[in-house]
Amino acid sequence: MLTLKFIQENPQQVIDGLAKKRFDAAGIVQSIIALTESKNQTQAKADKAKAEMNNTARDIGLLLRNGKTEEAGQAKERTAILKESIREMDQSFAETDEKIQQLLVQLPNIPCNLVPWGKSAEDNEVIRSGGSFPEFAAEALPHWDLAARYNLIDFELGVKLTGAGFPVYRGKGARLQRALINFFLDEARKAGFEEIQPPFMVNEASGFGTGQLPDKEGQMYHATLDNFYLIPTAEVPVTNIYRDVILDAKELPVKNCAYSACFRREAGSYGKDVRGLNRLHQFDKVEIVEIAHPEKSYEVLEEMVTYVESLVKKLELPYRIIRLCGGDMGFTSAMTYDFEVWSAAQQKWLEVSSVSNFESFQSNRLKLRFRDEAGKKPQLAHTLNGSALALPRIVAALLENNQTPEGITIPAALVPWCGFDMIN
RNA sequence: GGAGAGAUGGCUGAGUGGUCGAUAGCGGCGGUCUUGAAAACCGUUGACCCGGUGACGGGUCCGGGGGUUCGAAUCCCUCUCUCUCCGCCA
Predict the structure, then answer these.
(1) Which of A168, A184, A368, A413 could disulfide-pair with A157, CB 3.0 to 4.6 Å?
(2) pLDDT at A51 exceeding the cut of 80
(3) How many domains does chain A have?
(4) DSSP characters for A182-235?
């Protein structure tokens, strides 16, 4: 969430910035400023009363020690009124603060200047593309047909065991999953990311920290008996490592990577978008997370994009990198690049990675700060993350694009991790 | 799952109703000494909020929440977590 101070000091910048996300912030900003003013006045009054109370209590202690019981009794009577007014002011303060918090969490992050105007995916900006489109003699088969033909993925069996969107990978299909996970983790390690193996379930506080709660509650699986949530991405546990942490500037940038299974209820999805591997309730992903100095975060973002690009290049997939327009961006992001790979049989681009700079939007809620030098005040760090990469659509594209009459070929870079170069 | 003990500042650890944001040690930072370093010695060292241009002043925070009291780290209730023993077990 945005910081109160920033909104107070730059109300117009907030309103103008959020217009790019097609969000009308004028009313909320105005309310926040008015409420904050009233909250501050209440605090000033309450603090004064509390100071008086503290002094009186101290005096009573001294009087009692000196045996002046009567005077102490008189002082006690005076505190009763004071006490009641403090109670009222504290209550009013808490109520106002609660209102402000409720308004604050409604404000999306402000897009950075580079973000193009636009209202939907059509207005996104293609930054660059690479790889070549495959050509086929016969008609290309979609990955669900190929998965069945080579016995790689059993979607129906997943339905039997759990439900739709929980596929069972088997044989070379399972080995391909494992190979991709290891490939992505090893590449990330070589690029300087520390590997983390996080819990796949998190508590409520972590859900709040990264903003899944309270808004996207319905998108997460919830183990109600213990009040744990299955993670929708490793971003949640990994970023929450740094909740309530003050880092030393020397430690920046922090670079972490993590594999996790990801669980998403995907309530509301239907139709051909969910066919095969296109949209699943459980899937595998390697995530990269960075914590950067505010002055460096956009450099870091570009580095992350370059890194993710190196992965799709090694997998020899036709890809394009897109800068999302304001209208298509997520709530928490200041700038997002999406990576898409071409699905030859479905004849469409599939999103396989989303790399974002959240600036201080996440760290404000997380209370993730750093200290430039000893003695100086801590300030909010910038957080960034990206998929590097999500498996299912990569697998879909690999299967579809590399199909030959003899079988499916494995990109050379992946063969050492797979242990085979052909699925047939 | 049953029984017991505990949660204090970056860490260890005192403090059981009255100037306690909190003794002490370690660590960190600054200095003296040294060619330099170590050792020793001296000083310093939490976060957040409000008011003030500022010096500074005030407030909140001793796991979370609530209560008792003029006054709570200290007493009571409750939740969470940790440890020990027993049970079970990959």
Answers:
(1) A168
(2) yes
(3) 2
(4) HHHHHHHHHTTPEEE---SEE-HHHHHHTT-TTTTGGGS-EETTTTEEE-SSTH
Average pLDDT of the residues in A396-420: 95
What Rg, from alpha-carbon coordinates, does chain A have? 27
> Which of the pair, A268 or A335, is modelled with greater confidence?
A335
A91 touches strand B (CB under 7 A): no
Q: Is residue A116 in a domain?
A: no
Measured in angstroms, what separates residue A210's CA from nucleotide B9's C1'?
Answer: 27
Q: Using the CB atom, is residue A119 less than 7 Å from strand B?
A: no
H helices of A261-360, in order, are 297-314
Q: Is the CB of A64 under 7 A from strand B?
A: yes
A92 CB-near residues (< 8 Å, 6+ apart): A42
**A223 Cβ nearer than 7 Å to chain B strand:** no
Same structural domain, A208 and A63:
no
Residue A332: the pLDDT is 93
Mark whether A266 and A368 lie in a shared domain.
yes
> Does residue A16 belong to any structural domain of this protein?
yes
Cα torsion through A315, A319, A325, A328, rounded to 10: -70
Q: Would the CA dihedral through A139, A144, A147, A149 be positive or negative?
A: negative
Is residue A374 very low, low, confident or very high in pLDDT (cuts 50, 70, 90)?
Answer: low
Structural domain of A97? 4-104
For residue A296, say whether its CB is under 7 Å from any atom of strand B: no
- Both A132 and A96 in one domain: the answer is no
User: What's the CATH code of the domain at A62?
Assistant: 1.10.287.40
The contacts of residue A422 (CB under 8 Å, 6+ apart) are A406, A407, A408, A409, A410
- Over residues A260-303, the pLDDT tens digits come to 999 999 876 666 677 899 999 999 999 999 999 999 999 999 99
Inform me whether the pLDDT recorded for A116 exceeds 70: yes
Residue A220 pLDDT exceeds 80: yes
Q: Distance between CA A251 and CA A292 in Å, rounded?
A: 9
pLDDT for A63 equals 87
Question: Tens digit of pLDDT for each residue in A60-102?
Answer: 988 888 888 888 888 888 888 899 999 999 999 999 999 999 9
ipTM: 0.88
Report the alpha-carbon distance of residue A174 to residue A423 in Å, rounded: 12
pLDDT given at position A62: 86
- Spatial strand order of the sheet with A282-292 comes to A125-130, A319-323, A335-343, A348-359, A382-390, A282-292, A254-263, A194-196
